[in-house]
């Protein structure tokens, strides 16, 4: 049976990718919103923000990518919820397939679709002045960091996807996640914030992740940030995966 | 497996949802290659029985075996032996009819899922609609696709939970013919239905589930014997199954 996990997951991935490509509105929301933020901060707020940088687009980029991912994963919750309600989950579960493939199909789809929107946004960034001197290794490190972040948030999204009672409930949890970058070092240096806000900003995961990615893009030493960022992502991933699997087991028995 | 042993054996099955007892010791057996109809009012627990037999739900007590495999200890074997058409069509709205069939064919590891898909589309009068998204199908078309998906891979035992609900008379006759063909080819069919005429027409044996137990079961002829034929009418008339049903249910209620 374990030998079928890969081929079954492949079928599920194929199905779920079709869902993504056939609902154009989801692709648009996932990429347009972060691009709008990018343009807004670059051309509207950017001039007034003192970020001690000569290229504010470079400064913005990591936070914008995290916003894109945080909004992208809400569709995983939504698609999962739709599957549960439509009864197709029960069909799959009554078939002789690897049951884990049902969830992994959605999770891998999330990785693929988020990778696409990240690539699109970096393309737009390049067009308006994003530049990086990073080498292949640094780019791979950024890709790895974003993949881990996506994976952690996707498993987080699986929980409401399985347990919510309305489609809104299945996707609304991502709104606070989209908001987190605004209270971090993503758009302005944390030093400018008043005490308690600054304390929150400096100790929430987005700041560490943004700082690590920014340092990788700028070929600066990444310092402790990358380890803190990895620890946050790995921690969220492990806890979210455990909770999601517990919710899943409760659903299928 | 000896030919004499039943395809489905249910013994003392119990199930409660929280405080609500639904099954209070259900017993029945289904002979291989026969059509067995489970009748019951709304909320009698027909779907609950079908979900337990297709390994989607764990019973609180009693045993059930399908194709000789215990649903609790060998669920994968059970899933290899069955196919489920649930009460509500479990189809993927975003995929086309053909893609739905191909998906199931791939999950069941057919050598030529496309050929099988085309053949089934033909058989169920969906050849013209095969390339259209299922979201645009009528209720009857979805139901026919749903049943077609369940036939893929020729499982020896098929569960049909109210297979003809929502079909027009023509569609119903089509599905009846398919069910009879399946049984003719040796497939064991367990169906639930609200249409007593359907049970009369199709089933080799009929069981009535009422208030948590099977209150009567047998062939149509045996059930008819429970009521004396009407004598006052000028033309002697056999009681219909409906009369038998209402009478036995009423007596116990
Ligand atoms: N998940 C659940 N949680 C709580 N109660 C449930 C659940 N599923 C079913 N029930 C209850 O169990 C009883 C039996 O339900 P079931 O769906 O098995 O009936 P049924 O015979 O299939 O009815 P119908 O003819 O309406 O389809 C009903 O009273 C129903 O409300
Ligand atoms: Mg039912």
Give a structural overview.
- The complex is a heterodimer of chains A (253) and B (253).
- With 253 residues, chain A is mostly helical.
- Chain A has one domain (2-252).
- Chain A is built from twelve helices and no strands.
- In chain A, helix 2 (24-45) runs antiparallel to helix 3 (56-72), helix 3 packs parallel to helix 7 and helix 4 (74-86) runs parallel beside helix 7.
- In chain B, helix 3 (97-107) crosses helix 4 and helix 3 runs parallel beside helix 5 (139-151).
- Chain B has a single domain, classed as Rossmann fold (3-Layer(aba) Sandwich), CATH 3.40.50.300.
- Chain B is globular and about 55 Å long.
- Chain B starts with 7 loop residues before the first strand and ends with a helix.
- In chain B, strand 1 and strand 2 form a beta hairpin.
- Chain B has a six-stranded mixed β-sheet, sandwiched between helices. In chain B, strands 2-1-4-5 form a four-stranded antiparallel β-sheet, covered by helices on one side.
- Classes of the chains: A mainly alpha (253), B alpha/beta (253).
- Chains A and B meet through helix 1 and helix 5 of A and helix 2, strand 6 and helix 3 of B.
- The complex binds adenosine-5'-triphosphate and magnesium ion.
- Residues 46-47, 87, 161 of chain B line the site of magnesium ion.
- Chain A: Pfam families: ABC2_membrane.
- Chain A: One of its GO terms (biological process) is response to antibiotic.
- Chain A: Residues 25-251 form the ABC transmembrane type-2 domain.
- Chain A: The chain crosses the membrane at residues 24-45, 57-81, 102-130, 136-158, 226-248.
Count of the separate structural domains of chain B: 1
What is the C-level CATH assignment of chain B? Alpha Beta
| pLDDT averaged residue by residue of chain A | 87
Which word captures the global form of chain B?
globular
Keywords (chain A): Antibiotic resistance, Cell membrane, Membrane, Transmembrane, Transmembrane helix, Transport
Family (chain A): Belongs to the ABC-2 integral membrane protein family.
Pfam family, one (chain A): ABC2_membrane
InterPro entries (chain A): ABC2_TM, ABC2_TM_bact-type, ABC_2_transport, Nod_factor_ABC_transporter
């Amino acid at each position: 049976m374990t030998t079928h996990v890969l081929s079954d997951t492949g079928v599920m991935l194929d199905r779920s990718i079709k869902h993504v490509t056939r609902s154009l509105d989801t692709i648009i929301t996932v990429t347009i919103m972060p691009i709008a933020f990018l343009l807004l901060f670059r051309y509207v707020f950017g001039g007034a923000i003192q970020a001690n940088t000569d290229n504010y687009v470079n400064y913005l980029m990591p936070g914008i990518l995290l916003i894109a991912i945080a909004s992208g994963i809400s569709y995983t919750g939504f698609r999962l919820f739709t599957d549960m309600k439509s009864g197709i989950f029960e069909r799959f579960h009554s078939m002789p397939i690897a049951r884990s493939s049902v969830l992994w199909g959605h999770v891998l789809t999330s990785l693929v679709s988020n990778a696409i929107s990240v690539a699109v946004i970096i393309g737009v960034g390049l067009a308006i002045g994003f530049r990086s001197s990073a080498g292949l290794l640094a780019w791979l490190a950024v890709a790895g960091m974003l993949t881990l972040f996506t994976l952690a948030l996707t498993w987080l999204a699986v929980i409401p996807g399985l347990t919510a009672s309305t489609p809104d409930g299945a996707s609304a949890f991502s709104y606070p996640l989209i908001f987190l970058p605004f209270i971090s070092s993503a758009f302005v240096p944390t030093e400018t914030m008043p005490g308690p806000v600054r304390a929150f900003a400096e100790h929430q995961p987005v700041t560490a992740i943004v700082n690590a990615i920014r340092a990788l893009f700028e070929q600066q030493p990444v310092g402790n940030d990358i380890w803190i960022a990895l620890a946050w992502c790995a921690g969220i991933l492990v806890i979210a995966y455990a909770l999601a699997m517990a919710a899943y087991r409760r659903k299928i028995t | 497996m000896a030919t004499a042993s039943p395809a489905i054996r249910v013994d003392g099955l119990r199930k409660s949802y929280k405080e609500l007892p639904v099954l209070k010791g259900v017993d029945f057996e289904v002979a291989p290659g026969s059509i067995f109809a489970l009748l019951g009012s709304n909320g009698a627990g027909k779907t609950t029985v079908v979900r337990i037999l297709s390994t989607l739900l764990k019973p609180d007590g009693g045993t059930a075996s399908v194709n000789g495999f215990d649903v609790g200890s060998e669920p994968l074997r059970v899933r290899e032996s069955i196919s489920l058409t649930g009460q509500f069509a479990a189809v993927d709205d975003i995929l086309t009819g053909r893609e739905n069939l191909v998906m199931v064919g791939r999950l069941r590891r057919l050598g030529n899922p496309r050929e099988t898909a085309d053949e089934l589309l033909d058989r169920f009068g969906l050849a013209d609609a095969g390339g259209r998204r299922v979201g645009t199908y009528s209720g009857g078309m979805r139901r026919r696709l749903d049943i077609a998906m369940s036939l893929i891979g020729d499982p020896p035992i098929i569960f049909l939970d109210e297979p003809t609900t929502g079909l027009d008379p023509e569609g119903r006759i089509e599905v009846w013919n398919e069910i009879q063909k399946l049984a003719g080819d040796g497939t064991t069919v367990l169906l639930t239905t609200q249409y007593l005429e359907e049970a009369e027409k199709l089933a080799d044996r009929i069981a009535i589930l009422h208030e948590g137990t099977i209150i009567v079961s047998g062939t149509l002829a045996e059930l008819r014997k429970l009521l004396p034929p009407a004598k006052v009418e000028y033309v002697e008339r056999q009681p219909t199954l409906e009369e038998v049903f209402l009478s036995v249910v009423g007596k116990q209620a």
